[in-house]
Structure formats: C-alpha cells, structure tokens
From TrEMBL:
Enzyme class per UniProt: isomerase
One term of GO molecular function: S-methyl-5-thioribose-1-phosphate isomerase activity
Active site: D262
UniProt key word Isomerase: yes
This protein's UniProt keywords: Amino-acid biosynthesis, Isomerase, Methionine biosynthesis
Reactions catalysed, as given in the entry: 5-(methylsulfanyl)-alpha-D-ribose 1-phosphate = 5-(methylsulfanyl)-D-ribulose 1-phosphate
UniProt GO BP: L-methionine salvage from methylthioadenosine
Protein name: Methylthioribose-1-phosphate isomerase
Gene expressing this chain: mtnA
Organism (species): Labilithrix luteola
Length: 376
C-alpha cells in the first residue's frame, strides 16, 4: 500500500466526557478534577480529528500537559495549575513541614511551565493561602480543602466568562461578522470562553452573527479549535489564513474583531497570540474596532506596559514541521534553515477600542479605564 493511501484519520469526536458533572457545563471540557484527585484533560493537540481525554495523576505530568499544550489558553492553564496543586497534595502524605515543602516544589514546577499568560501565576497565588491554612489538617481534609478551592476558582472563571459575555454583547451589532484569532473559547477557559463568550452571548441573544476565524499559524488554534467548538454549537464559522485579514477588511467583510488575552498590562497593552498585533494594525487602518475580552485574572497591574511582559519562544519545530494525524510530521522548511517562533505579541492600548472584563468595559483601553474597573 502506498504511503498516501495509508493515511486514514480516525474521526472520534463526540466521545462521552469521562467526568460525571463537568464544571465547564458542556459535552466537552478542557480540564476537570475527577473523583480520586486525578485530572482529566482533553488533549487539544488531537483536535479536531480526535476528542481524546488523558488522565493525569502526578504534578510533573500536569506541568508537562501545560508545557506541551494538551491544555492551553490563559484561564485554562491557570485552572489546570490550581488543580495541579490538588494532585500534588494528594501525593504528599507526610506531616505539615513535608507537605509545605512538596507544595512549594509543585508550585515552582507549575509556575515555570509557560511564561506569558499571567493567569497561571495568578491561580497559584490564589491557592497559596489555602495551602498554608490546610497544612495542619489531616491528610484527607487538607486534600479536600485544596480540591474545593481549585474547583471554586474554576467555577468563578467560567462565571466571569459568562458575565463578560453579557457586557460584550452590547458591542456586537445584529448581523455582524466577527473576526477572531487563536482560540479564546471554552477550550481555553474551562467553559464558555472570553472572545467566544461574547460570540456565544450574541448568538444566545439571537443576534444573527457569523465568525471568521484566522487559522493562527503556526499552532492552528483557530482552524483546529475555534472552528471545532463553534461548529459544535452551530454558530456559523469560516476559517481564513492569517494572511487574508487585510483582504477581507478592505472588502468591508468584517465588522469587528474580538480576541482574548494572555496578559494585560496596567496601561492597557495586551499580550495575545502572535499575529494579534498585525490584525490590530490592519483593523485600525480600516476603521474596524478591535475588542479584547478577558477575565480580571488576566490583568497584571504589576506590569506597567507591554514591554514588561515576557514573551514565550516555542520550539522551532512547531513552525518548521506540521504534525500529521498518523503521528508523522510534514517538514515545511529546508534542512539547515532556522525558524523563529515567538508565541505571543503585544498590541498597544491605543489600538484596542475596549477591554471587556466581568467587571465591565475599560473603554478606551488604558490606565485610567482599568483603574476605574479595579476600584469598582
Ligand atoms: O498558546 P496558547 O494556545 O495558549 O495561546 C492562547 C491565546 O493566545 C489566547 O488568545 C489567550 O490565552 C486567551 S484564552 C481565553
């Protein structure tokens, strides 16, 4: 049999979720804590061809799952890190000092797994007092205390998405075509989504919207993930290559851009998936508003501007080779030629029409409007 004929992808989407009651609330979810303090993670690298869930019961496996992008998206990796501490607590059966030592090592491991999305460090910071208070409890109670806190954090992040979706609804005209980049949906947040939360809210409000998803080279989160989850929810979506954005803007085919964020600096600068800055420049040139949707956990008031945000460089191979469904890779770049692979870029606040959070809108994006939201 020839090599070409051997490639028959197995379509296994629609597999039943192994968790009895996912917090995400959908038929699928990025991450959940299982009874027995194991995590179940939807392996997003396999989408859209396979909906495959992996079980993880060691904290180093949780860190690997984040680093290797089984789970990705700023809020989702924060939630996963919080659950990672639960897994670590279940493995740490010693007295209070040895528990605290194990938890500190787990925190450091998880914190180092990806650098740009501040939600990861934010979630671990939220868990710190819970860990300290639980240290003197008996083993069963302390593990359960962490499990309750991490599940609570997960629930609150999903609720924030629903709330920001309701705020963002006001920005979406009936009949709008919305451009989005990367995946800022249920897969990236543990449920509902940020940019796609606004899309879902508009769809639920029966606004006649449609979505254009950039494929999002090199990791193809738009083509593989955004298209998958919107199609599942029967929200009209088409995929374009990243290089087609200017063409469709010039044709007046896009009414607004809505993207997520990995970190928002105090002055309103936004780090998001590589390519967002280019889209923002094109949108500004065509008078199309660009909105950023993110829970407050993505705002990092300690970063004064985008200059302070660390940008992750992913392996060259993610750009130079395309993974195939049969486990092989298609080489795209000649042997001996290097590749660059920054995973995020920074869009300056002046190109962002508004930042949509669960606290309301920061409009225009900037230090003053964010300070207003912070002060409630
Ligand atoms: O590298 P990824 O897939 O983790 O990047 C994700 C993004 O850039 C998202 O747009 C961002 O995290 C917002 S998710 C609600």
């Amino acid at each position: 049999m020839s090599g070409a004929n051997r490639f028959v992808p197995t379509l296994r989407t629609g597999q039943a979720h192994p968790h009895p009651a996912p917090i995400g609330g959908d038929a699928y979810s990025a991450v959940e804590l299982m009874p027995g303090y194991r995590l179940v993670i939807l392996d997003q690298r396999k989408l859209p061809l396979q909906e495959r869930y992996e079980f993880v019961s060691r904290v180093d496996e949780v860190a690997d799952a984040i680093r290797n992008m089984l789970v990705r998206g700023a809020p989702a990796i924060g939630i996963t890190a919080a659950y990672g501490l639960v897994v670590a607590a279940y493995a740490a059966r010693g007295d209070a000092p040895s528990f605290l030592e194990a938890m500190s090592a787990a925190d450091a491991l998880l914190r180092a797994s990806r650098p740009t999305a501040v939600n990861l460090a934010w979630a671990l910071d939220q868990m710190k007092p819970v860990v300290a208070n639980a240290a003197n409890l008996p083993f069963v109670q302390r593990t359960e205390a962490l499990a309750q806190a991490a599940s609570g954090l997960h629930r609150a992040e999903v609720a924030a998405c629903r709330m920001l979706g309701a705020h963002g609804l006001t920005l979406v005209p009936d009949g709008a075509t919305i451009l989005t980049h990367c995946n800022a949906g249920a897969l990236a947040t543990g449920g509902y989504g940020t940019a796609l939360g606004i899309v879902r809210a508009a769809h639920e409000a029966r606004k006649n919207i449609r979505v254009i998803a950039c494929e999002t080279r090199p990791y193809l989160q738009g083509a593989r993930l955004t298209a998958w989850e919107l199609h599942k929810d029967r929200i009209p979506v088409e995929v374009i290559s990243d290089s087609m954005v200017a063409h469709f803007m010039a044709k007046k085919a896009i009414d607004l851009v809505v993207v997520g964020a990995d970190r928002i600096a105090r002055n309103g600068d936004v780090a998001n998936k590589i390519g967002t800055y280019g889209i923002a420049c094109i949108a500004a040139a065509h008078g199309v508003p660009l909105y950023v949707a993110a829970p407050w956990s993505t705002v990092d008031l300690k970063c004064s501007s985008g200059e302070d945000i660390p940008i992750e460089e992913r392996p060259e191979r993610e750009l130079s080779h395309l993974p195939l469904a049969d486990g092989n890779q298609l080489q795209l770049v000649p042997d001996g030629v290097g590749a660059r692979n920054p995973s995020f870029d920074v869009t300056p606040a002046r190109l962002v029409a508004a930042i949509v959070t669960e606290r309301g809108l920061a409009r225009p994006a900037g230090e003053a409007s964010l300070a207003n939201l912070r002060n409630g």
